[in-house]
Amino acid sequence: MMHIAVVGTGYVGLVSGACFAEMGVQVTCIDTDEAKIEGLKQGVMPIYEPGLEEIVRRNVEAGRLSFSTSLADCLEQVEVVFSAVGTPPEEDGSADLSHVVEVARTFGRQINHYTMLVTKSTVPVGTAARVKEVIEEELARRGVQIPFEVASNPEFLKEGNAVKDFMSPDRVVVGVESERARQLMTQLYRPFLINNFRVIFMDIRSAEMTKYAANAMLATRISFMNEIANLCERVGADVNLVRKGIGADPRIGSKFLYPGCGYGGSCFPKDVKALLRTAAEADVPMPLLQAVEQVNERQKGVLFEKLSRHYAGNLAARTIAVWGLSYKPETDDMREAPALVLIEKLLEAGCRVQVYDPIAMERCRAVLGDRVTYAKDMYDAALDADAVMLVTEWKVFRLPSWETLRRVMRTPLLIDGRNIYDRDEVLAAGIMYDRIG
Length: 437
Known about the structure:
Blueprint: E1 3-7, H1 11-22, E2 26-30, H2 34-41, H3 52-61, E3 65-68, E4 80-83, H4 98-110, E5 115-119, H5 127-142, E6 148-152, H6 162-167, E7 172-175, H7 179-189, E8 199-202, H8 204-235, H9 239-247, H10 268-281, H11 287-299, H12 302-310, E9 319-323, H13 338-348, E10 352-356, H14 361-368, E11 373-374, H15 378-381, E12 387-390, H16 402-408, E13 413-416, H17 423-428, E14 432-435
Parallel strand pairs: 1-2, 1-4, 2-3, 4-5, 5-6, 7-8, 9-10, 9-12, 10-11, 12-13, 13-14
């Protein structure tokens, strides 16, 4: 049985560790946060991700998945260490690699047999070379020569669908420097891809770049459609029909062509910034990506602008309901969430804000405290409201009782930030309606 360690128990680390264990690998998940590790030992999940709690519990009970605060304690047994620690953005947009470097230092101080360190965190091009230098420094300090390798295995997990993405990936990107590393990674991933082996091997720098390029492309598609939506609104076109028309072209495809109130989350904003920083350091201008970022920041203010136009700027003391807080459905992640930008603007304008999200309420409370009112359901949020603003397209919001909504609201106005409702249906129910594009 292969034994691996996964350092970091966030979305990437915990999902990766649990899924490897599900395929029969002996996995130790490491985190320096003692409270988080103790919670995991008790079955308490630090994040919400559909299916994750069940898969963790099953593999803990089977003895294939365990949790620890010490990488050193398990290095005697492991062949591969995955580094899945956070790489938050610095003020200048560059990725903070302090946690990545610390994992490399611990690795170099403690290994005593051939071991491979695989970076799963999203890191700038050239990070693996830096990691290798750090490990060599630590080995030299110890005065020993122990064989090791570094590799890159960027993740392409979608929050809310991460377990399924890991268990049935559309592709696995792996950057390696030797045939031995290639064979180790093949051995690890073959169980997931038994019918169609979709591991794409490449050099390490190309693997590091692939992750950023993929997220930058998806972010570009979103910002492009938001620009088209804003233009449609001005010239009288319907962006929903435009999206269908261009998405039918197989060269374009329909995915990530949905206009809305901006992207958020742990990946797109951070990765676009980091790629721009890498480009600046390499003295390569990237005006397209700069525009993608600017369009997205502007788009996060569109819903507030629509509300303000409706009330001619007179928003003080109005009650506004916000449906959806997380940056996307099926997660409680509120990093860079458009809802936070909207809520801040509403509060600055003197509005009373009532919020509801099926999962992210506690996460929101930790961020906003008692500055907003937390409703028990979507209709409670809309009680006596002067507008309902749909920000996150959770399933629970998709088919409201229009009669109930109209009855509980003071002013029946719905502003749809994700274009999920049928305009004619809403208007027929006696509710004023506005949307993107």
